[in-house]
Description:
The chain is an all-beta fold. The chain has 2 domains: about 1-75, 3 Solenoid (Pectate Lyase C-like); about 105-190, Pectate Lyase C-like. The chain has no helices and 11 strands. The strands form 2 sheets. It has a 7-stranded parallel sheet with strand order 2-4-6-8-9-10-11, with no helix packed on it. A 4-stranded parallel sheet has the order 1-3-5-7, with no helix packed on it. The mean pLDDT is about 90.
Amino acid sequence: MSKNYFEEKTFEKFDFKSGALQQGEYEYCTFITCNFSNSNLAEYRFMECEFIDCDLSLIKIVKTAFQDVKFRSCKMLGLQFDTCNKFGLSLSFDDCILNHSSFYQAKLKKTLFKNCQLHEVDFTECDLTGAIFESCDLAGAAFENTMLRTADFRTSANYSINPDTNQIKKAKFSLPAVVGLLDKFDIKID
Length: 190
């Protein structure tokens, strides 16, 4: 990997489709209204960075490190977080669209998903212990062998979670969305 190092730098309104972001390490950097869609960010390293109002759809993040990275109002369609560097993986999402992304086998304890659209997101074998799903739409999201202990779904909707194939001890749910725990029974609830 390149030894380029960037600290406390702000990138605003850059279109990285026309010119690539230099490969390297980014620490305490802020990216505002940038277009990364379809970019290759493999083996980059982002530490304590913030992405605001950016398009990160379909970026390649093989071996990419995200340590204490915040995403706000970002479009992030089809991201494969299962391919990124697992060491120190720490993310938070506020008002993001993450449809068709994969967190397969990721360790995301205490991760915050706030006001996010998570349609068809794969959380299979993910550790979401203590994660908070605040006002999220989880239509079609996959939970299979997922650790959801103490996770909070009270303000979210459209999830379907099978209690037999996921660990949900002390997870928090509320009415009426809690019926998503009964989907496996194929019953009608009025």
